[in-house]
Amino acid sequence: MLWTQTKIAHAAITLTLLNGAVVIEAVAETPEEKGLAIAIEADKRNDGWQDSTADMTMTLRNKRGEESVRELRVKSLEIADDGDKSMTIFDEPKDVRGTALLTFSHKLDSDDQWLYLPALKRVKRIASKNKSGPFMGSEFAFEDLSSQEVEKYTYKYEQDEPCGDQTCFKVMRYPVDKNSGYTSQIAWIDQSEYRIQKVEFYDRKKSLLKTLEASGYQEYLGQYWRPKKMAMQNHQTGKSTDLIWTNYQFKTGLSDGDFSKNSLKRAR
Questions:
Q1: How many domains, in total, are found in the chain?
Q2: Which domain holds residue 145?
Q3: Would residue 20 count as lying in a domain?
Q4: What is the DSSP secondary-structure string of the chain?
Q5: In this structure, which long-range contacts are made by residues 39-44, counting pairs with CB atoms below 8 Å and at least 24 apart in sequence?
Q6: Tell me: the pLDDT tens digits for 160-188?
Q7: What pTM was estimated for this model as a whole?
Q8: How do residues 4-47 score in pLDDT, each as one tens digit?
Q9: Which residues contact 5 (CB under 8 A, 6 or more apart)?
Q10: How would you class 67 by CB atoms within 10 Å of its CB: exposed for 0-12, middle for 13-18, buried for 19 or more?
Q11: Nearest CA to 37 among 1, 3, 82, 81?
C-alpha cells in the first residue's frame, strides 16, 4: 500500500491517449500525498550510511534549572527493508555506568527494546505499552529513541513556514502504533536538505506535551546531515533535556553481532 501511495504522491502529471494524441492532465496533489512525499524524500536522502558511532552528552534540567550530566555512546546499524538497530550506552556518572538500551526499530511492527541494568545484572524487555515512558529520567521517551521510519506515521502537509533563516515544510504526523504516547506530531522540515528542525509532540489528550529543536547540523560523507544539538522541552512539567553529539564516525564495520541482547551485558 505504501508504494501505491508513493506513486500517487509523485505523479505530478498523467499521460492519456485520446484519438492517437497524448494529452497531459494535471493531477492535484492532496495534503496527505504531499506530506507522504516529503517524508519519503527525507528518508531517501538519509539512505546508505551503513553504520555509525557517536558520543553524546545528556544534560537533564529540572523546572528550577538544576542540572545533571551524563556521558553516553551510541552505535547504530542500518537495516535494509526494516528499521535500524541502535545501542545507547551510559559511561558516566558512576551510578548509571554500563546501563545500555538496545533498540530494534521496525517499519510496520512495534519496535523491540531491551534495557540492561548492571546493578541487577539482567536485561529487561521494554513492553510496547511502556514505550511512551521517559528514558532514564530524561524528557526523551523510549519511542523517541527508535529510528523514525516513514511507515510509522500517516502524514498531512499543512503549509510552508519560515524556520530561522530557512523555509520549512510544516507536516502533521500521526503515529500508526496504538501504543504511542502521542496522538500527533507537527514537524518542521527544511526545504533545502529535508532535515528536521523542530517537532511538537501532542499527548493522548491532544495537548502540547513537548517540543524538540535540532540545531548545528553538520554534513558527513558529503551527504548525511546530523544535528550537533537536540533540545527537548516538556511544557507540562517545566523539565528539559539537551543532547550534544560529537565524534560521529560512519561505516566503521559494525554488524548484527554488535546488536544482540548478549552484547548489552558487554557494553561497558
A1: 1
A2: 51-264
A3: no
A4: -HHHHHHHHT-SEEEEEETTEEEEEE-PPPHHHHHHHHHHHHHHTT----EEEEEEEEEEE-TT--EEEEEEEEEEE--TTS--EEEEEEEESGGGTT-EEEEE--SSSPPEEEEEETTTTEEEE--GGGTTSBSTTSSSBGGGGS---GGGEEEEEEEEEEETTEEEEEEEEEE--TT-S-SEEEEEEETTT--EEEEEEE-TTS-EEEEEEEE--EEETTTEEE-SEEEEEETTT--EEEEEEEEEEE-----GGGSSHHHHTT--
A5: 39/150, 39/153, 39/155, 39/171, 39/173, 40/6, 40/9, 40/150, 41/194, 42/189, 42/194, 42/195, 42/196, 43/149, 43/150
A6: 999 989 999 999 999 999 989 999 999 99
A7: 0.86
A8: 333 333 433 333 444 444 544 455 689 999 999 999 999 999 99
A9: 33, 36
A10: exposed
A11: 3
46 occurs within a structural domain:
no
Q: Which residues contact 80 (CB under 8 A, 6 or more apart)?
A: none
Taking the C-alpha atoms of 244, 247, 252 and 258 in order, what is their torsion angle to the nearest 10 degrees?
-40
Q: Residue 218 domain-assigned?
A: yes
- Measured distance CA(36)–CA(41) in Å, rounded: 9
Q: How far is CA 150 from its chain centroid?
A: 10
Cα–Cα distance, 162 to 30 (Å, whole number): 22
End-to-end CA distance of the chain: 43
Alpha-carbon distance of 57 to 88, in angstroms, equals: 12
The label of the residue with cell 527537548 reads 232
Q: Give the total residue count for the chain.
A: 268
- Residue 142 lies inside a defined structural domain of this protein: yes
Q: Kindly report the CATH number assigned to the domain that includes residue 193.
A: 2.50.20.10
